[in-house]
Design brief:
The chain is of the alpha+beta class. It folds into 3 domains: 212 residues, no CATH class; 86 residues, Immunoglobulin-like (Sandwich), CATH 2.60.40.10; 91 residues, Immunoglobulins (Immunoglobulin-like, Sandwich), CATH 2.60.40.10. It is 37% helix and 24% strand. It has 6 helices and 16 strands. The strands form 4 sheets. Strands 3, 4, 6, 7 and 8 form a 5-stranded antiparallel β-sheet that branches. Strands 11, 12, 14, 15 and 16 form a 5-stranded antiparallel β-sheet that branches. The longest helix has 56 residues. The termini are far apart.
Length: 405
């Protein structure tokens, strides 16, 4: 007989689907029996099928992600090469060493999507300001090529972002579909338990609550990992467990939204470092494997990740520059190096009440500490706030500072 499951809500996604499909199969055999309650069972097979369809859709989306990542990597390397070339090219034509800094190219150009976006944007923004200057005539073609590469990089980046959003939406849909299956499963379970109470085990009956098991179903011959621990190490979480005799690997799953656990590690090691997970409660389970067979999951452990917010930026300032544009600048407090900064901006008619900080920033993940903004319209006042981010935690906002035109 297949292993039985006391608590279906604790099963991983694929195991839960197997359990639900086995339950549908069992219910088909119950049709026409005196204890069969059609109203309790009605539509359960459709809900299980809908859950399976959403899992298939999610898996299809996942299969496309590696290719999108490869495309993005190629475009990122192209924009990095173009920016490095521009950084080398500019000093050839201009004796002023500050010219590289004015184009935002004074820093190391890393192969990081957010860094490349900020540097490329800063470089092309300054180019738009000076492109009509005859002194720059010899680099016009080079900047046109840079613009083309940057646009291709941004298109690939947008595709990657959309794929992340699509995966999030698909995961939320799976959670909703699973919740409807779980709710009806509980109703069916309670009905049959009332009809077939087993005095040896009051929690469940001997009828539909088992699973035939596919390649991922637990094998009673494989031990269960013991001593699962999740320990905070700064902004990271280290998960460790004891080795299982005879096991050749382990399968670690994680979630912030039970019961949907997703794999974060598969391999022979008995520990894994989960790098910089979001603030919140994180749950982990692990099981051992031998060849293509898996043992049962151990009891889940949880850890609360609370990353202390960094100190807020200092010396926030806003000034008018050429053509009515405004420049916002700030600095990090002593001893703090932000992973990125967010700039919030609001324009209101002069004399209006001061606005609240906008919910969304105008710029996010800024590693530079100054930004030049479009011209401020006559009769308007511009307000600016800035926050810093470190290890996934955001500081309090500094500001607002304001300037009127």
């Amino acid at each position: 007989m297949a292993p039985k499951c006391r608590y279906p809500k604790d099963l991983g996604l694929n195991d839960f689907l197997t359990f639900a499909k086995d339950m549908v199969t069992w219910l088909v055999g119950e049709v026409g029996k005196p204890d069969y309650q059609a109203s309790v069972v009605a539509g359960f097979d459709l809900k299980v099928a809908a859950l399976e369809a959403e899992i298939v859709a999610y898996s299809t989306l996942q299969s496309h992600v590696p290719e999108l990542h490869r495309i993005l990597d190629a475009k990122a390397k192209a924009i990095q090469t173009a920016l490095q070339s521009m950084k080398t090219l500019l000093p050839v034509f201009f004796a002023d060493p500050a010219i590289v800094g004015e184009f935002g190219l004074a820093v190391e150009i890393k192969l990081d999507n957010d860094d490349l976006y900020v540097i490329g944007q800063a470089c092309l923004t300054h180019w738009g300001e000076v492109s009509a200057d005859p002194a720059y005539a010899e680099v016009v073609t080079d900047f046109a090529e840079l613009q083309t590469v940057f646009d291709e990089f941004m298109a690939a980046r947008a595709g990657w972002v959309l794929s992340d959003q699509a995966l999030d939406e698909a995961q939320n849909t799976i959670l909703a579909e699973r919740a409807t299956v779980e709710e009806q499963e509980r109703n069916i379970f309670n009905y049959y338990r009332s009809k077939h109470h087993d005095p040896k085990d009051e929690w469940w009956t001997d009828s539909p609550w088992g699973r035939t098991g596919d390649s991922n179903a637990p094998s009673g011959e494989i031990g269960v990992p013991a001593n699962l621990q999740a320990t905070l190490e700064g902004a990271d979480v280290r998960i460790s467990w004891s080795a299982v005799e005879g096991a050749d690997g382990y399968y670690l799953v994680h979630t912030q939204f039970p019961p949907l656990f997703l794999r974060v590690y598969e391999g022979a090691d008995t520990e894994f470092l989960h790098v910089r997970p979001d603030n919140g409660t994180h749950h982990y389970q692990v099981r051992a494997k031998v060849g293509d067979s898996y043992g049962a999951y151990c009891v889940a452990v949880s850890v609360e990740v609370v990353v202390e917010a960094p100190a807020p930026p200092v010396m926030l300032n806003i000034v008018l520059v050429e053509d009515g544009k405004t420049k916002v600048s700030w600095d990090s407090p002593e001893g703090v190096v932000y992973d990125g900064c967010s700039l919030f901006v609001a324009d209101v008619p002069t004399g209006s009440p001061a606005p609240s900080k906008p919910a969304s920033p105008m710029f996010h993940d800024l590693w530079v500490y100054s930004v030049t903004l479009d011209a401020l319209a006559p009769g308007m006042t511009r307000y600016a706030w800035v926050t810093g981010e470190k290890n996934g935690a955001e500081s309090e906002a500094t500001g607002p500072v304001l300037i009127s035109n």
